[in-house]
Task: inverse folding
């Protein structure tokens, strides 16, 4: 319960001034693992789920979101273990991301499956190169997003 029977100093009566996002005010910068779990992995899963249902519009959107997630990771954490994150992402996933775009535009499930497998392999190759081979990404078997429909409307 807040006491109202004592006077506040002028400093206490002023609302706190927060500049920028809350993370800036807290001096919190998410690590690469945090960003991968929060941004990249869910988009990878949604991309696979959308394509499995042949929802090509959603797959195109999920691919764009995945690309933006990778860009965010590279902006927030430009270096990881003295390696340039944007270069790592491009070398491990760049070609497969372009192949996924082509497959989605063609609405070709076979090409998509091959490119998605290459993307997933690229993610796992990156993990291995960074001594995190125990982090294994795979094609989703089921949705972890019960509040989203992946079937095309």
Result:
């Amino acid at each position: 319960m807040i006491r109202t029977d004592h006077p506040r100093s002028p400093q206490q009566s002023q609302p706190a001034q927060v500049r920028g996002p809350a993370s800036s005010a807290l001096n919190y910068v998410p690590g690469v693992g945090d960003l991968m779990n929060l941004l990249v992995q869910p988009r990878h899963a949604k991309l696979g789920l959308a394509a499995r249902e042949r929802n090509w519009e959603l797959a195109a959107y999920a691919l764009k979101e995945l690309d933006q997630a990778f860009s965010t990771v590279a902006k927030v954490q430009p270096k990881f273990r003295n390696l340039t994150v944007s270069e790592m992402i491009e070398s491990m996933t760049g070609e497969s991301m372009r192949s996924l775009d082509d497959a989605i535009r063609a609405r070709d499930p076979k090409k998509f499956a091959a490119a998605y497998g290459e993307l997933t392999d690229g993610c796992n190759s990156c993990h291995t190169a960074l001594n995190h081979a125990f982090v294994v990404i795979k094609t989703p078997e089921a949705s972890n997003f019960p509040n989203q429909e992946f079937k095309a409307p």
Residues 8-13 have pLDDT under 50 and may be disordered. The radius of gyration is 21 Å.
